[in-house]
Amino acid sequence: MAEPDDHSLERLQQRLTRFAAARDWQPFHTPKNLAAALSVEAGELLEIFQWLTPEEAADVMSDPDSAHRVRDEAADVLAYLLQFCSAVGVDPLAALAAKIDRNELRFPVPKGPGTPQAAD
Amino acid sequence: MAEPDDHSLERLQQRLTRFAAARDWQPFHTPKNLAAALSVEAGELLEIFQWLTPEEAADVMSDPDSAHRVRDEAADVLAYLLQFCSAVGVDPLAALAAKIDRNELRFPVPKGPGTPQAAD
Amino acid sequence: MAEPDDHSLERLQQRLTRFAAARDWQPFHTPKNLAAALSVEAGELLEIFQWLTPEEAADVMSDPDSAHRVRDEAADVLAYLLQFCSAVGVDPLAALAAKIDRNELRFPVPKGPGTPQAAD
Amino acid sequence: MAEPDDHSLERLQQRLTRFAAARDWQPFHTPKNLAAALSVEAGELLEIFQWLTPEEAADVMSDPDSAHRVRDEAADVLAYLLQFCSAVGVDPLAALAAKIDRNELRFPVPKGPGTPQAAD
Q: What residue in C sits closest to A44 (Cα-Cα)?
């Protein structure tokens, strides 16, 4: 069913748009509602980790059920982020590239003698 | 500075990894901490909308300051989601594609006579 | 079972402490974990409202199931807030009183001729 | 300015109601908006802890600035929870008491020989 570029961000964003349109969910998918849903889903991802020690959290993917839940909630976060971006007309990849550019200026890499480091 | 494929998800994920490594931030970037940070950033995106009417929220991008803030917070959410996915070894695009596949089975498109609709 | 002052905040905070102690849950109830759990529960409360119009949201308590869910999630938020405050040694009521005092200075009441308004 | 019972939950809830009314903020204080604001504030509380180790988080109140920030954000969470409860007509203390009652049935205390434990 999946074709090679089925996994590009743009293609997935289109699938999400068509998925919602086919079910008449668009009236619910306002920017405000999608921002709320994104926050709710991020909370569900955090819920997996809330009682874990740092060590247990680092090992979360070794349990198949937990691993499935992590992938599922991460997918939900990405789904609502992409739908939010569609609703407000933001290109998420361009926004992130611009943010990293700004952060490279805001947080310069500490350079010491003998430790030359490229910013990126 | 930007090359054509600078905006691919994989390339941005690599930039984020190198950005954190160059600043020795990796010890902080545990799965649990990144899930918390993702949730915090999703809250900051929601904060923009919390007192807006649905109409004001739909018009949020017409104000340059609000538009910048929306792009900035959406970028932060994506940044932490990608860093989280790197930390736990999840491919976010594959996870989303699998989730959409499951949702197409879980929420079949209502079909009536004369309104044939493809699921995707 | 309930006595008159069973519903005081202090009494409920004590019940929560004893509840956790009796189940050996205290090692999990660190300030960081409780702050995460509080955020997760606030997300679950928001989830009830995420797709509702403002009108539907205003009417949420007229449906018994929704009303129960709202009370249940509000209770969870309060439970984790009180447990968090116990863990860090903060008096939530004193903290709120101090915050309202500060906000009354920060947001003075607009006064016009003929519309005398007391700040509190 | 503060009287003995100024710190009761009911009194603080009244102060919050009058504070919002005096500033004509009530139209913004819908159940949905308040649930969103509560979630946003819970995120701001979590933000204090997001990069801390469990040890650093346990010591957060020893730094005066961090301690102030914790009290301030905890107060904000309580403020929005109380305003939310006012908006939907929920008694937060009664809701919590009922929830603890349910949880005592749902999570019975493990009892072993020689370790009799009362549920509360």
A: C40
Position B113 in a domain = no
In a domain, A86, yes or no: yes
Backbone angle region of B26, left / alpha / beta, with phi > 0 → left and psi within -120 to 50 → alpha: alpha
Number of domains in chain D: 1
Predicted confidence (pLDDT) per residue in C52-110, tens digit: 998 899 999 999 999 999 999 999 999 999 999 999 999 999 999 999 999 999 999 98
Q: What is the ipTM of this complex?
A: 0.89
Let me know if residue A96 belongs to a domain.
yes
CA distance A53 to chain D (A): 8
Domain that holds residue A83: 26-106
Q: Which of B8, B40, B30, B6 is nearest to B86 (CA)?
A: B30
B104 touches B119 (CB < 8 A): yes
Residue B73 inside a domain? The answer is yes
From the list B42, B76, B85, which residue is nearest A74 (CB)? Answer: B85
CATH number at residue B86: 1.10.287.1080
Provide the pLDDT for residue B25.
96
